[in-house]
Structure formats: structure tokens, C-alpha cells
Design goal:
Number of strands: 11
Structural class: alpha/beta
Distance between the termini: 39 Å
Radius of gyration: 18 Å
Strand content: 15-25%
Oligomer: single chain
Strand order of the largest sheet: 3-2-1-11-8
Amino acid sequence: APLLAAPPAGPNLHFPSEPRQRLSVTSYPFRAYIESPTNPERDKSKPGMDLKEFPAMIAKRFGVPNINPLGDHMSSTDPAYLESFRKAVADAGSHIVDLGLSGRDFSHPDRAVQDEAVAYGRKWIDIAAQLGSPSVRQHLQTAAGAAPSAARAAESLARLAEYGAQKNIVVNLENDSPGAEDPFFIAGVVGKVNSPYLRCLPDFGNSLRGSDAAANRKAVDAMFHYAYNMSHVKDVLRSPDGKLYRVDVAGLFAVARANSYRGYFSMEFDTAAGDPFAGTENLVRQSLKYMA
């Protein structure tokens, strides 16, 4: 049974129909270049930029009018910085279409840990509202060796979705790491909560690890069933053991169409497989081809 017997009225985003206007680029593949005290993957051997420079760079280099930044890539969350970042996005003729958050344990058996996860998500929902982002991507995590609880995760995420509804901010869950971010686990939790403000964010490649194209297609299809405004596009994935997986990009765009998905596609090249600039350019070309 759904946890929200009377779900709030859903968000009413007006998505563009022109393919390029539906594209976005995430800041994650460019993390080596982004200066931020909360970005541990900055590579000082590469030229640096503040996240405020990111939207103009993406618009100029790739001709993409939307960005999908990570909260950890911001230099600050002070109101003055948030306002300057929002202005930089507008000045670039760009838009923030999703804000990526770090992981928290929403299914921990200790209620205090669940409460901390909800509080963290609420803080960033407030920031998303200040920046004009229609959604946040909330990563899920569990303690090492612990299995996630669908019941506890649903209860905690229902509280977060209720707060998102108050702010008109969607909470997206991505199929990423195994366990708490298994695609079928996420789809089950989202279905149980039954809120238009808790949605799936299908990633084209993450569920390929240790799998094959057919299983990945089923996983992404399960996610698109509950998707609303955001999906991540990959064409390759390299696992920690060095294995390279090729993504059926054309087939997964077909899955999106079959699920009547009208939201944004954000380019998220796997930097373990190459240069983020060349990789992103290739993803943009493929996306425009298969969206036509």
C-alpha cells in the first residue's frame, strides 16, 4: 500500500520539445577542474574553475543550455554565493535542471540516522529552491555490510518528498552503487511512497556493472517507469577492475520514448574511460541523433 494515501498535486514543469533544449551536462565528469573545499577530486595539475564558470563553459563549448551541478562542487552555500551562482547561470543563458546531492542512509535502523538524512535532504531542497533548480538528486547509502530496508527507506523518503512538495522540488533517486541504489530496489521504494515528488533518475550505464545489455535495459526500463525530469546519459562504463562496458545508447533512448519520458537528458561521461571534453562532445552528438 502507498505510504501517502493522498499524494500532493504533482509538479507542473513545462519541458522543451526541441532536442538540444532537453540536453544538460553534469559537473561530475569535470570534477578534476572545479575548485571547491568540498570537492576532494580536484586535480591541481589541471586548470581550475569555480562552479560559477561552469554554465558559460558548457554553453560555449558544447552548445548545451542546461547544467546539472553537484552541491559539493559549490564554493559555498552562503546566500551571497548562491545568488552569484544563480546570476552566473542566467548570464550564460543557461538553466539548472537538477542539483546532485551526496549520499545519506535513509534506511538505517537508528531513527536518529534517518532523521539526519532527512534533515540533510531538506537543507539542499531549500538551496535548490534558492537556485531555481526544479529537483535534487539524492544519493542513497547504507553502512558497509548492511542490507537496505525498503520499508525504512520508504518511510524516510516519504518525509523528504513531503518537504519537497512544500517547496515544489522533486527528489530524484539514481541507480548507482549496488545495494541501496539497485534500480529495482529504488523503483520499489518510489512505488511504495507513491508521491509525484519522489521519482527515479535512470542512469544509462550504472547498472551495467557485472551485468549485460539485456539486464541493463530491464533495469533502466524499471527506472523510467517512475522518471519525471532527469536521466543521465553514458555510452561507456569502466569498472574498478578495468573492464569496459559499452552502453546501448540507441536502445535506451528507445526505452525512454516507450515510457513517454519528456524530461531532460544530462550528459555524464565516465572519465575512467577517457577525456571528459571529448567524451561529452560525443555524448551530445549521439543524444541529438537518437532523439531526432
